[in-house]
Amino acid sequence: MARVLTPRAEDFPRWYQDVIAKAQLADNGPVRGTMVIRPTGYAIWERMQAEMDARIKAAGSENAYFPLFIPESYLRREAEHVEGFSPELAVVTHGGGKQLAEPVVVRPTSETVIGEFMAKWVDSYRDLPLLLNQWANVVRWELRPRVFLRTSEFLWQEGHTAHATEADARAYARKILHEVYEDFMVGVLGIPVLVGRKTAGERFAGATNTYTLEGMMGDGKALQMGTSHELGQNFARAFDITYSSATGGVEHAWTTSWGTSTRMLGGLIMCHGDDNGLRVPPRLAPVQAHVMIVKDGDGGALGSVAGAASKLRDALRDAGVRVGFDDRVDTPFGRRAVDAELKGYPVRVEVGPRDLAAGNAVLVRRTDGSKTPVAVPDVVASVLAALEADQQALYDEALKLRLDRTVTVGTLADAIEASATGWASVPWSEVGPAGEKEANGQGVTVRCLIRADGSVPDSEDEPELQAILARAY
Amino acid sequence: MARVLTPRAEDFPRWYQDVIAKAQLADNGPVRGTMVIRPTGYAIWERMQAEMDARIKAAGSENAYFPLFIPESYLRREAEHVEGFSPELAVVTHGGGKQLAEPVVVRPTSETVIGEFMAKWVDSYRDLPLLLNQWANVVRWELRPRVFLRTSEFLWQEGHTAHATEADARAYARKILHEVYEDFMVGVLGIPVLVGRKTAGERFAGATNTYTLEGMMGDGKALQMGTSHELGQNFARAFDITYSSATGGVEHAWTTSWGTSTRMLGGLIMCHGDDNGLRVPPRLAPVQAHVMIVKDGDGGALGSVAGAASKLRDALRDAGVRVGFDDRVDTPFGRRAVDAELKGYPVRVEVGPRDLAAGNAVLVRRTDGSKTPVAVPDVVASVLAALEADQQALYDEALKLRLDRTVTVGTLADAIEASATGWASVPWSEVGPAGEKEANGQGVTVRCLIRADGSVPDSEDEPELQAILARAY
After folding, report:
1. C-alpha distance from B451 to closest chain A C-alpha (Å)
2. Alpha helix (H) ranges present in A319-462?
3. pLDDT tens-digit readout, B188-230
4. Bridge partners of B99?
5. Residues of A whose CB is below 8 A from B62
């Protein structure tokens, strides 16, 4: 068979671009740094949205929609925020054929405009907490774009909440971190993210504390899969989000924000993909079982094969399986099989005249490539078992990689060296802000700080923290 | 009770703004013409999306996502298209701190950028039809903005398809018109839309044929609720969307586009709303039954009331009803009831100590305001029956209005006069392009052309067509 993809070991970044092109996940847009998400890629994003959205709503947040255009002056109200985002802004100077009196920016994120409305809507402590989320596009001009990972426009959800106390804001930022993000990434994406706290140097512009979920990609690099921020009273002061307390005083609220984006599609590819293409974890997959009709060599008996295949499709659908169906018998089977592998459908059910004559269909599992004849009446049960097992198998494989390629070292120099091939865990006391700068100079970043027991610290000044250093996307 | 809303008869536009503000559906955004869709409004939009999206997928289209930013040069490739949209464009001139070599426009619609990619993806007749849809925001600079109806940024779905023949393109544009749009608007929104064909003067910029769905609002004006366009080969020529046919020749494809937007929220308000607020048809409603705890006058027995209310909530949920729950007993009940009316929940289930002592809860139906004590074990069945009946009742009421306020006349002059209070049906032969201009000069437009039997014409040159004239939003 002709080589479809560049092997990962040969050139990982080229393999990544190959998968995106050949599996028809996305294209580059005409304006530099933008992307077109094709139906195969978008169907995965829709599944991510559905799973995330249910968790966000279960955590009590409600969806809303705020404008794409933000007055430039809003960004300037929070000093760190404007400093962080200014270099990445797209600016609209003309509208309706006229130059605008005040230029507007295309939102890079929405803390400012949402802060403005929180100030209008919050009056008393009874209005808190105010828990909002939006699904939207945002724009951050990218100098070195890469599809899904860094694009000038991307799709995301951004949550924004206001609380009466710092403790309540912190608890909610952590609730989202664990109950929404970690639960989804571990349980559905099958990615064993490391959950920790960003250093002051890596915080979101305007935050007092940033939590992060870091995934290890197939080449040992890190990808920030999502973040949850405590914003302290910074935005509440800048936008005057105040409330009258139960005791009658007027207080500034405490706010949080948190986001995940189409970047997760990049993480999915780089965490689970192999040299034959994408592998989509069953719980996420838009197509979990792909029923394929195999044409008879001599062109006979296609009717009964098609009938048996349709019945299997319906039986799988009735059992709650998301089913694809491929009856394009005029296309060579080999090409269709390669396409199914590229797109990473967890299970293929091949129905052909020869196997059917023996009462069988063939189950092909994408995770390990195994092909097993299964008696037709047992297909549904076998598919369900395979989906369950392969969800776990992909997670286990990713966890093994992360453990194998994370080394515990004692010095900054060793950590930087170890970052060439994976992650390094080193005492934060050996690094500190000065060591962090040194590492940054060599393309290595502190991905997060964690406690010795793996839990998330409340401050970077806690004793005995471990820093995770790595190269990152 | 204090007057909450301006009565419709007193000032319909002010009533509309009042409903939007008091039901907390939306706010004006800081940049002129933009809007903030608040959770109550957005939940309705999410329900619209879910119902529409299922129908769009059933019609065979797949979701994708194309970039927000379009090179200015793309728009210029189709002469009518650029002429139609130029006055409404928002233009980005700076990105990443630098002036852009070529300014980019914020998409007002995506025929051009999608045409560019259709050209890349379509090779042979086997690649057709190519059926795409996207859910996205678009920007059209508005001089006279009105929330939901005309906003500088709005949310919508836009479908874009390419076909091998004109007949196939026409059949698909009509399939979307009837099986997606009409089916949704009639069956879910409960709006008896009139489906017809736009005149040449009212066509989408770049289309060869535009189909429309027109709803009558409470004041007798028309609202265009959605459109489906045949684009002929205009965009296929401009973007070189060609395919090799089965016989070996190279042909231009035939394309369509079709869209519906957050404007439907405006139509919902103005079609079904009354002087007490919004009335949301049950099949659309995010909250179909709103269970409210009524506080005892003397503060006693709240525990058992709360228990009974929770049980009713769970029983309704188990029966597949979308349930809201209001246990804010510290807020005066009158205020909570007014809020529920404003937001238009189809059924309220009031659970209080006095009725409960008699074994009852009280069902309040938003459609007709009726209040009925119902034995607790019968509540679920009564709610289901009320939801079914009130879906029909709202449709019937809207249809009656449309029929009552549509008059059939014989001359253009009579049609223009009748448009002051409703719709006029007049022979198209009495109007024609010249009469259409005359009507336009007096604020009246030809909403659509229909055949005598109510069906949709293939051409505006068919004999015996009726023109529907009205004032419109």
Report:
1. 38
2. 333-343, 353-357, 379-404, 412-418, 432-441
3. 999 999 999 999 999 999 999 999 999 999 999 999 999 999 9
4. B94
5. 39, 42-43
User: Tokens standing for B399?
Assistant: 């249809």
Average pLDDT of span B71-92: 91
The mean pLDDT of A229-253, rounded to a whole number, is 96
Chain B contact for A117 (CB, 8 A cutoff): yes
- Say yes or no to pLDDT of A300 above 90: no
Residue A402 in contact with residue A271, Cβ under 8 Å? no
Best to test chain B binding among A92, A137, A327 (most B CBs inside 10 Å): A92
Q: Which residue of B has its CA nearest to A33?
A: B67
Q: Does B141 touch chain A (CB under 8 A)?
A: yes
Residue-wise pLDDT for B280-323, tens only, equals 999 999 999 999 999 866 555 567 899 999 999 999 999 999 99
Rounded alpha-carbon distances, angstroms, from residue B146 to A94, B28, B109, B142, B266: 21, 9, 20, 9, 9
What topology is assigned to A289-392 in CATH? Rossmann fold (3.40.50)
Tally A–B CB contacts below 8 A: 159
Same fold, B12-272 and B289-387: no
**pLDDT (average), residues B66-80:** 93
User: Mean pLDDT across the stretch B381-406?
Assistant: 98
B246 touches chain A (CB under 8 A): no
Cα separation of B449 and B211, whole Å? 9
Distance (Å, whole) CA B258 – CA B55: 14
The second-level CATH assignment, the architecture, of A406-470 is 2-Layer Sandwich (3.30)
pLDDT of residue A295: 83
How much is the mean pLDDT over chain B?
96
Dist. CA A426–CA B335, nearest whole Å: 59
Cα separation, A363 vs A372, whole angstroms: 5
Domain ranges (residues) in chain A:
12-272, 289-392, 406-470
Residue A376: pLDDT over 80: yes
ipTM surpassing 0.85: yes
Give A303's contacts (C-beta < 8 A, 6+ positions apart): none
CA distances B314 to A137, B246, B379, Å, are: 37, 59, 12
pTM: 0.97
| Residue B147 contacts A where some CB pair is shorter than 8 Å | no
Please work out, in degrees rounded to the nearest 5, the angle formed at the alpha carbon of residue A369 by the alpha carbons of A365 and A373: 60
Instruction: With CA atoms as reference, report the closest residue to B65 among A245, A29, A336.
Output: A29
Q: Mention the CATH class of domain A12-272.
A: alpha beta
- For the domain spanning B289-387, the CATH number is 3.40.50.800
Residue B180 structure tokens? 């997606």
For residue B297, what pLDDT is reported? Answer: 61
